[in-house]
Amino acid sequence: MSVAIxxxxxxxxxxxxxxxxxxxxxxxxxxxxxSIETRLGVTPMYDMISADPxxxxxxxxxxxxxxxxxxTWYPASKGLETVRALRAHLAENPSGLGNAxxxxxxxxxxERLLRYLDANEVRFHFAMDx
Length: 130
Hints:
By secondary structure, this protein is mainly alpha-helical. The chain has helices at 23-26, 30-40, 53-59, 76-92, 100-119; strands at residues 4-9, 124-129.
């Protein structure tokens, strides 16, 4: 199964490629990731995951719309803080994850996009692809 974490932009962004792979990050145990992020004092990536309620409703047929949380958007600066802290930590402690080099590549792509979003005042959230 291919799992990936990716970035969703609040609005279309001209002049940049918004694709980020995120497969290496998607295969990191969420509890391990959260533990590192908590020690670093940054907002965990999984806390910034959101989705369009209509898409969730289509995915989970029969779920009451009132039970689906609204889509939440975050300033790109908040995502940058987390991504940069994780990247710095993994660069200094690569043995913390078996696939640290691939995760760092994902984080570099995330940082590139989040920097662009921040400069253009576009909010975002993380999402998961299964």
